[in-house]
């Protein structure tokens, strides 16, 4: 079980046995939970205990939070995967933890696939039917897997049926696609060993929309989203349907960040 730092109770003996809290990654909670498992400890999720929590109230704060988490996962991947594969866990256990730690690679791999597809679209390339079948089946599995994972979470934690949770799931998929640029950068920095300071995510709107140096946050996402949309329209418009999540996510995240910055600047100019 990967501990995410929220609403958890630890045994002091388990923390000490795992090597203690270490600050060499941005996901020190994940780092400790994996090291505790390597030391033979097990975790337990108690779903009957309700705990209040706070969420980021602006797109900028949420984007910053997700970027930090993603970089932390990449750092833990570099730090812990060699130890995972040297331990005596069953092979299926080691594979599961490898997939869990490496999930941040989704973003650079997704961006790479997107960039590689653009020249093929422009060239109007034709592929062997077997290759088309493989592409469509893997895409279908990816979308179906994500939908089922999020639907299960909605059903277990909130008691929502698929019909009621589907709008929330689609919004989550769109917004996560909008993190393609920022999270890819975070993953590459984490894999390269580039350190950065831990900055706690501001939960109040006043802090998360504070002006100063953030006026153009979101411009990169808006520019990328519009450029991708224009490219598809000018080449093969029908392919735009295959990239609605990415285009919609980039534009949504970018425009929300620009709106947050504009609001913060306006509020800062008001007389106190």
Question: How would you portray this structure in words?
Answer:
By secondary structure, this protein is mostly helical. Helices cover 65% and strands 0% of the residues. The protein has eleven helices and no strands. Helix 3 packs antiparallel against helix 4 and helix 3 packs parallel to helix 8. The longest helix has 30 residues. 25% of the residues are buried. The model has no long low-confidence stretch (mean pLDDT 85).
Residue stretches low in confidence (pLDDT < 50, at least 5 long) are none
Structural class: mainly alpha
- How many strands appear in the DSSP assignment? 0
Helical content (DSSP H or I, runs of 4+): 55-70%
């Amino acid at each position: 079980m990967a501990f995410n730092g929220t609403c958890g109770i630890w045994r002091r003996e388990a923390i000490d046995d795992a090597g203690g809290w270490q600050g060499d990654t941005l996901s020190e909670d994940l780092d400790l939970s994996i090291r505790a498992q390597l030391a033979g400890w097990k975790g337990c999720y108690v779903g009957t205990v309700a705990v209040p929590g706070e969420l980021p109230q602006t797109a900028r704060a949420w984007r910053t939070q997700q970027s930090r988490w993603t970089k932390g996962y990449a750092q833990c991947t570099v730090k812990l995967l060699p130890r995972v594969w040297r331990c005596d866990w069953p092979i299926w256990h080691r594979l599961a933890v490898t997939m869990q730690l490496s999930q941040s690679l989704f973003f650079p791999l997704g961006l790479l696939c997107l960039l590689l597809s653009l020249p093929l679209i422009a060239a109007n390339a034709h592929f062997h039917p077997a290759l088309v079948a493989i592409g469509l089946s893997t895409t279908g599995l990816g979308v179906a897997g994500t939908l089922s994972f999020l639907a299960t979470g909605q059903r277990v934690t909130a008691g929502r049926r698929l019909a009621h949770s589907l709008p929330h799931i689609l919004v989550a998929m769109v917004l996560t696609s909008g993190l393609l640029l920022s999270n890819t950068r975070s993953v590459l920095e984490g894999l390269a060993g580039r350190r950065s300071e831990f900055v706690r995510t501001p939960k109040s709107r006043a802090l998360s929309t504070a002006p100063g140096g953030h006026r153009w946050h979101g411009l990169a996402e808006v520019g990328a989203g519009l450029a991708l949309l224009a490219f598809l329209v000018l080449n093969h418009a029908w392919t735009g349907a295959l990239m609605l999540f990415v285009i919609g996510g980039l534009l949504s995240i970018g425009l929300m960040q620009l709106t947050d910055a504009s609001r913060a600047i306006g509020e800062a100019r008001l007389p106190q």
